[in-house]
Write a structure and sequence with these properties.
Layout: E1 2-11, E2 14-24, E3 29-33, H1 40-47, E4 55-60, E5 63-65, H2 70-75, E6 78-81, H3 93-98, H4 102-109, H5 115-128, H6 145-157, E7 163-167, H7 175-190, E8 194-198, H8 202-208, E9 211-216, E10 219-225, H9 232-240, H10 242-246
Bound molecules: adenosine-5'-triphosphate (ATP) and magnesium ion.
Length: 247
C-alpha cells in the first residue's frame, strides 16, 4: 500500500540512507529496528514529508507521490506520531485531539468548533482505542505517559489515516503503559490501518510485529517475518552485523 523504493538521504557528507526499499500493507504492523543512528527516524521523516528524498521514490496505493510538507503526507493518509508527541501541555484532551485539524473539524461540524460535538468525537476515538481518561477537561500535562501516547495516536485517528508512523512510542514508558500502547497498536491493525513502528524493545517487537525490517548504517540489511518464528538473537545479530563478522 505504501512503498519506498531506493531511498537515499545525505546530511552533508553523511549517508543517512542508501538504497532502502520498504513496503507496508493495510492491517499490518511493520517494525523498523536498528542501532542508534541507523537511519530509522530519517526514513520516517522522508515518509512523513518532513524531509525530502535525495534519491528514490515513494508510492501510495501504487501511485508515485512527492511530499513537500507533512500536510501532503496527511493528505495521502499518512499520519506521524513523533517521539515528543507534540502535545500542548496546558490544553485539555479534547483541544489536543483537534489541534491543527481545523479542516477535519469544519467538515465534521460545519465550520463551528462546537465543544460538545468535539467531546462526542473525542469519546468515540478514545473509546475505540480503549484509552481511559477521567477528565477530558484536565490539561494533558497532568496525564500519564501512556495516556498522552493514547491522545497522540487518537489525534492521528481523528482523520482516519491509512498508515500511521510511530517513532519509539514506548521509549519513556513503564511496563504497564507499554502494554497499553501495544493494545492501541493491535487495535489500529484490527481497524485495517497499516502501522510502521520504530522500537528498540526487540522482545516486544517479536510479539507485536507481523514483519521486522532491520537498518544498519543507513542500509536495509534484513527482514524477518513473524510466521517464521525467528529468535530475538537473530534480530540482534542482524542489527549489529555480528553474523557477517564471524563468517
Ligand atoms: N538533521 C540532521 N542533520 C545532520 N545529520 C543528521 C540529521 N538527522 C539525522 N542525522 C544523522 O543521520 C544518521 C541517522 O539518524 P537517525 O536519527 O535516522 O537515526 P535513528 O536510527 O533514528 O537512531 P536512534 O535509534 O538513535 O533514534 C545519524 O548519523 C544522525 O546523526
Ligand atoms: Mg530515531
Amino acid at each position: 500500500m505504501v512503498e519506498v523504493l531506493g531511498a537515499e538521504k545525505n546530511y552533508g557528507g553523511l549517508r543517512a540512507l542508501s538504497g532502502v526499499d520498504l513496503h507496508v500493507d493495510a492491517g499490518e504492523v511493520l517494525a523498523l529496528v536498528g542501532d542508534n543512528g541507523a537511519g530509522k527516524s530519517t526514513l520516517l521523516k522522508l515518509m512523513s514529508g518532513v524531509e525530502p528524498f535525495d534519491g528514490g521514490t515513494l508510492k501510495v496505493g501504487g501511485e508515485e507521490v512527492v511530499f513537500h510538507t507533512p500536510r501532503d503526507a496527511t493528505g495521502h493518509g499518512i499520519h506521524t506520531v513523533y517521539q515528543d508527541l507534540s502535545l500542548c501541555e496546558n490544553l485539555d484532551t479534547v483541544q489536543n485531539l483537534f489541534l491543527g485539524q481545523e479542516q477535519v473539524s469544519s467538515i465534521l461540524l460545519g465550520n463551528r468548533l462546537d465543544r460538545r460535538e468535539m467531546e462526542t468525537t473525542a469519546r468515540r476515538v478514545l473509546g475505540e482505542l480503549a484509552v481511559k481518561i477521567q477528565s477530558l477537561r484536565a490539561p494533558v500535562g497532568w496525564l500519564s505517559g501512556g495516556q498522552r501516547q493514547g491522545i497522540a495516536i487518537g489525534r492521528a485517528l481523528v482523520s482516519e489515516p491509512a498508515l500511521i508512523l510511530l517513532d519509539e512510542p514506548t521509549a519513556a514508558l513503564g511496563v504497564e503503559q507499554k502494554a497499553e500502547v501495544y493494545n492501541l497498536i493491535n487495535r489500529l491493525r484490527d481497524r485495517g490501518c497499516a502501522v510502521l513502528l520504530i522500537s528498540h524493545d526487540l522482545r516486544d517487537v517479536r510479539h507485536l510485529a507481523d514483519r521486522v525490517a532491520v537498518l544498519r548504517l543507513g542500509a536495509k540489511v534484513g527482514e524477518f517475518v513473524k510466521a517464521d518464528n525467528y529468535d530475538v538473537d537473530d534480530l540482534v545479530a542482524s542489527i549489529t552485523g555480528a553474523k557477517e563478522a564471524i563468517v
